[in-house]
Each structure stands twice: as structure tokens, then as C-alpha cells.
């Protein structure tokens, strides 16, 4: 229903109803920039009187731009979080590899010491055998 009260309507001013505060839509930053370019081209073509410069209240575009900025920051945060998780997993893997390498290194050093000791004992035994054989001659 529609009810008019008050002054008479003589048509001296345009009857425009602005529905933009009731509309909800999301725009990407690309579409905002393309809309601004389109408005500039329409404004420069000579039909400035028929095309309003500000379509809708400015707080909606500010709200959308903040929403878009928030979305971009959230996407960057998620990407950084995924990269952080990946890098942490790589660090854990490298730490495990390092600890395995250190333990293998210790085992190899112990093995070298054991082999060196066994080599010295064999050398002493062979020298003893040589001395014994020389005594028999």
C-alpha cells in the first residue's frame, strides 16, 4: 500500500525511490574498479545529467571494500597458515632424519673403535706368532 499526505505533487522534482540500502550484494575488487571505469566513461560521454555519480550510499561501498579486504587478508592468512604447517612438517621430518643420522654416526664410530681394537689384537697375536716361529727356528 502507498499513502501520500502533505504537499501537492506538481512534478517539479524527480520522484526517485532509492532501494540501495535494502539491497545486499558482494562485489569483488575487480568489479568495483570496472564499475568505476564504466562510470567515468559514461560521465565523459556527455550524459552526466542522466547518470548519477554516486550510485547508492557511500557506506555500502566502504563496507564492501572492507569486506573484500577482510576476505583477502583471510585468504592470505590461510595460505600463510598452510605454508607454516608445511614448513613445520618439513622441520619435523628433517629433525627426525638428523637424529637418525646422529645415531647412525654414533654406531659407525663405535664400530670403527671396535674394528680398531680388533685390528690391534690381531696384530699383537701375529707378532706373538712371528716371535714364536723365530724361536723355533
UniProtKB/TrEMBL annotation:
This is RUN3B protein. It comes from the Eukaryota. Residues 42-53 have a biased composition (Polar residues). Residues 29-61 are annotated as: Disordered. InterPro entries: RUNDC3A_B (IPR047340).
Amino acid at each position: 500500500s502507498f499513502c501520500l499526505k502533505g504537499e501537492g505533487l506538481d512534478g517539479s522534482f524527480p520522484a526517485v525511490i532509492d532501494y540501495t540500502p535494502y539491497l545486499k550484494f558482494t562485489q569483488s575488487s575487480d568489479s568495483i574498479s570496472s564499475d568505476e571505469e564504466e562510470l567515468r566513461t559514461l560521465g565523459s560521454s556527455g550524459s552526466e545529467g542522466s547518470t548519477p555519480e554516486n550510485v547508492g550510499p557511500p557506506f555500502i561501498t566502504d563496507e564492501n571494500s572492507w569486506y573484500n579486504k577482510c576476505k583477502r587478508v583471510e585468504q592470505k592468512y590461510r595460505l600463510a597458515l598452510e605454508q607454516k604447517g608445511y614448513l613445520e612438517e618439513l622441520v619435523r621430518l628433517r629433525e627426525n632424519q638428523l637424529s637418525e643420522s646422529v645415531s647412525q654416526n654414533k654406531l659407525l664410530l663405535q664400530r670403527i673403535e671396535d674394528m680398531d681394537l680388533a685390528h690391534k689384537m690381531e696384530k699383537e697375536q701375529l707378532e706373538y706368532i712371528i716371535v714364536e716361529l723365530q724361536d723355533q727356528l
